[in-house]
């Protein structure tokens, strides 16, 4: 079965069990989705980020939780570029191994012989239940680091009871007094990476924003697909014409298509500009980073609005579990709640344009 057909077929069960199904997980790994932007040394495809964004959009169009899982695990696998080669070999030598986790530095490290002893608890651990290695941002005596722990050190807490992205398994996880060798803790900014490549030049904190925006765009595209199909067959109660023949619906469909296409093009354009800087070995200027983050937040907002309008156009048909429109509605709103695409990002863009000197350290 085609990968996308499989994802769509399995999505209702995944939603019910709050986790991707084993056939979908196996298919994603078989297709190398978890390493789309990882180095070829570890079985990665080394996709450029504009191409990666399109892949995440299409996976999210099939199912948001699957797209979200692909997005977070591919971003996690990008750590293979930054880790010292001996540590990357340890973590990524198995081409089927998933890596997942959370970058927020909520682990507390105490130095010991050869490394640290770490205790911490993290939220938003998308796909950690499927991972062989888990990233937990950790505050060390030399500052915050992305630290990688074997799954055996990690306890997962069943906390992901959510409105949307239910099958992303974004549970909390913790570890207690775990040993972390120095080699598995890295700061992916301002260092000499283990493997050189455009990824390591691209602004690191923009990875996730572009990924979240891509998921949102994919969900909105699915919502338009669904309302177009419904409009062709549904005649509402007390009406004499199908939705497709009603002027109000025709206008709404045209407007949401224009809005989604515009947001998608804006993200692709700004991501391509930033990626071109990385390919040329140049750090992206602040203006380029700010415009990219503007596009990410704009995409998330437009996608949520488009999905809401598609859901509303479906009328009573949209509210049932059998309708993909209700799942799109919930998934889009949950994805767009992520802080990296919040409306606060819009302030930074405007402050930079107006010469007000915003803090760009997390851009």
TrEMBL record:
Keyword terms, alphabetized: Oxidoreductase
Pfam families linked to this entry: Acyl-CoA_dh_2, Acyl-CoA_dh_N
Domain Acyl-CoA dehydrogenase/oxidase N-terminal: 15-73
Domain Acyl-CoA dehydrogenase C-terminal: start-end pairs: 211-342
PANTHER family from the UniProt entry: ACYL-COA DEHYDROGENASE, ACYL-COA DEHYDROGENASE YDBM-RELATED
Name of the protein described by the UniProt record: Acyl-CoA dehydrogenase family protein
């Amino acid at each position: 079965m085609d990968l996308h057909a499989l994802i769509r077929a399995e999505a209702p069960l995944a939603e019910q069990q709050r986790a991707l199904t084993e056939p979908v997980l196996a298919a994603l790994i078989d297709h190398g989705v978890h390493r789309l932007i990882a180095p070829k040394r570890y079985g990665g495809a080394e996709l450029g980020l504009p191409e990666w964004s399109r892949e995440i959009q299409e996976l999210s169009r099939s199912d948001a939780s699957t797209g979200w899982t692909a997005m977070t695990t591919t971003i996690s696998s990008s750590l293979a570029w930054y880790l010292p080669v001996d540590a990357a070999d340890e973590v990524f030598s198995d081409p089927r191994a998933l890596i997942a986790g959370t970058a927020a530095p909520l682990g507390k490290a105490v130095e010991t012989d050869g490394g640290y002893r770490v205790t911490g608890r993290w939220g938003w651990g998308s796909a950690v239940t499927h991972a062989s290695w888990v990233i937990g941002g950790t505050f060390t005596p030399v500052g915050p680091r992305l630290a990688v722990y074997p799954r055996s050190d990690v306890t997962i807490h069943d906390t992901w009871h959510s409105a949307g992205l239910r099958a992303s398994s974004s549970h909390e996880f913790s570890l207690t007094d775990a040993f972390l060798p120095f080699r598995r803790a890295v700061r992916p900014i301002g260092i000499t990476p283990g493997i050189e490549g455009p990824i390591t030049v691209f602004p690191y904190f923009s990875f996730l924003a572009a990924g979240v925006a891509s998921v949102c765009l994919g969900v909105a595209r699915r919502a338009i697909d669904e309302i177009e199909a419904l409009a062709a067959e549904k005649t509402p109660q007390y009406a004499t014409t199908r939705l497709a023949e009603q002027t109000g619906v025709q206008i709404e469909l045209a407007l949401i298509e224009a809005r989604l296409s515009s947001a998608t093009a804006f993200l692709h354009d700004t991501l391509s500009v930033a990626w071109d800087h990385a390919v040329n070995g140049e750090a992206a200027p602040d203006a380029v980073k700010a415009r990219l983050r503007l596009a990410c937040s704009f995409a998330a907002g437009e996608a949520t609005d488009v999905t809401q309008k598609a859901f509303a156009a479906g009328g009573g048909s949209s509210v049932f579990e059998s309708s993909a429109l209700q799942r799109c509605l919930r998934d889009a709103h949950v994805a767009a709640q992520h802080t990296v695409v919040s409306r606060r990002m819009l302030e930074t863009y405007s402050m930079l344009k107006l010469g007000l000197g915003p803090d760009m350290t997390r851009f």
